[in-house]
Every structure is written in C-alpha cells, then in structure tokens.
Fold this sequence. Notes:
Elements: E1 2-7, H1 14-21, H2 35-43, E2 48-52, E3 57-60, H3 62-68, H4 74-77, E4 87-89, H5 100-103, H6 107-114, E5 118-126, E6 129-141, E7 148-158
Parallel strand pairs: 1-5
Antiparallel strand pairs: 1-4, 2-3, 2-7, 5-6, 6-7
Amino acid sequence: MTQLEMSLPQGNDNSSRLAARSRYAHSAPLPANLIPWKSAIQGSGDPCALLDENLRIRAMSISALRLLGLSAEVEETMPRFLDAGIRFVDFSPGGHRLGTPELGRLPMLRAMQSNTLERGLARIEMDGSRLTMDIIASPLHRHDESEPSGVVAFLRQVGT
C-alpha cells in the first residue's frame, strides 16, 4: 500500500491560482461514458472524485471538496489533480515535497497507468493539522476500449 502525504498552503486562496492555471474547461467535452459518473459523484455524500484521462478534475463531491480544502471552482477550471493546489509531501518529520516518481504512486495515477484498482494512504495538511486518508481508485472505460478514459476515486479519512 502506497503512503503519501499532501499539504495545502495555510490561509491561501487557491481559487485564483486555479482560474489562472486552467481555462481547459470549455475546450474538452466530457467523454460520454463519464457523464453518469459525474452526476453520481456530484450527488454523493461520500468524499469522491472523477478525473478524466488527463487526470483533470471533472467532478468532486461536496465532502471531497471539504476534505481536500478545495473550492467548487475546480470543476469549472478543471486543473490536473496534481496542479489543484495540493502540496504532496512525504511522511518524514520534515514533510519534504514529493518528486515525480513518488507522485506517480498516488492511487489515482496508478489506476490510470496500471488499468487496475489501486489503493493507498495519503496524508493532507490543512490549517496546521494533518489528516490521513485511505484512497481507492478505479479506472473507467468506454465500452469499446481497453485503455481507461478516466478514474473514480473514493477518499476516506482514517484516524483522528
């Protein structure tokens, strides 16, 4: 099981950075097979997210937005998950920023790469406290293709 930690900047409004980073939203239509998933994710009471094949955020439940400290704007600006203002760090006492190889171990990325269900732990730091999450990610497919067209991820806080 992969263990990662992510940190969100304290007292920092990510929404302006998200808007400046990505105007992708109106240029890429949602693949037809992801449309039912978008509705399910947006209506879910559980923390979950829908990412497209480029790992852009296409939908998040309200509880996932709260858990990750993100605004609802992420569904409009559609940043890549790794560019959404979440800083991933390791589990060391110093919380060093993860490099590309370590980021590739996030369950969402691994599910897209391996085309299999993936699970791992991550830690998020917000407002000076850390939350550990269990993340389960599953690739989603068009009916006629073997390559994933997106991934659905379920997040659950573990511990206190």
